Amino acid sequence: MKLDPSMREAVLAAVPSLRAFAISLSGNVDRADDLVQETLLRALVNIDSFEPGTNLSAWLFTILRNLFRSEYRKRRREVEDGDGTYAESLKSQPEQEARVEFREFRAALAKLPADQREALILVGASGFSYEEAAGICGCAVGTIKSRVNRARTRLAELMSIESLDDFGPDRATRAVLSGTDRS
Q1: pTM for this prediction
Q2: Which range, 10-24, 66-80, 158-172, has the best average confidence (pLDDT)?
Q3: Distance in angstroms (rounded) separating the CA atoms of residues 136 and 48
Q4: 164 partner at 20 to 30 Å CA-CA among 6, 19, 47, 176?
Q5: What pLDDT, on a 0 to 100 scale, did the predictor assign at position 111?
């Protein structure tokens, strides 16, 4: 199968965002890479079902999300290091303040309900509009706005953040925490 060069470039451009989303869903880099690979394979096999003129990135994110959900349902009964003790022992200790802040951010993000975390990552970190995120998640725009707002509020509470000045200078992190509308 030969892809149109512009389609190929658009798919390749989406890979970093897909990977970041997969990491946020799975919490495991290796599993996230597998999810992205499987997403790309499924997208290529089903490229004829993509409607030209629509949002390719949203289509890819939807495939990834559905794939994750399917795998989650299959693995729901499996127990792999349930309390994270083993995984935590494999991580190296942070050497810089930014790494500590990022670890705290990831821990706080992991405490959010899955639907809020997903909405926040799609809108705040991946740059989707509320409408696009609603399409990916299969819910109303108002639901996404509510989830993002609740997620930002809860994340700020968990991290004891009263203003953006209380947190590091990372642009992506600031985008997630900011209340800027993307509609």
Answers
A1: 0.51
A2: 10-24
A3: 19
A4: 19
A5: 92
Q: Mean of the pLDDT values across residues 33-47?
A: 92
Q: Which domains does the chain have, with CATH numbers?
A: 5-75 (1.10.1740.10), 94-177 (1.10.10.10)
Query: Could you tell me which of 60, 53, 45, 52 has the C-alpha nearest to residue 13?
Result: 60
Q: What is the mean pLDDT of residues 127-143?
A: 92
Three-state secondary structure string covering the chain: CCCCHHHHHHHHHHHHHHHHHHHHHHCCHHHHHHHHHHHHHHHHHCHHHCCCCCCHHHHHHHHHHHHHHHHHHHHCCCCCCCCCHHHHHHCCCCCCHHHHHHHHHHHHHHHCCHHHHHHHHHHHHCCCCHHHHHHHHCCCHHHHHHHHHHHHHHHHHHCCCCCHHHCCCCHHHHHHHCCCCCC
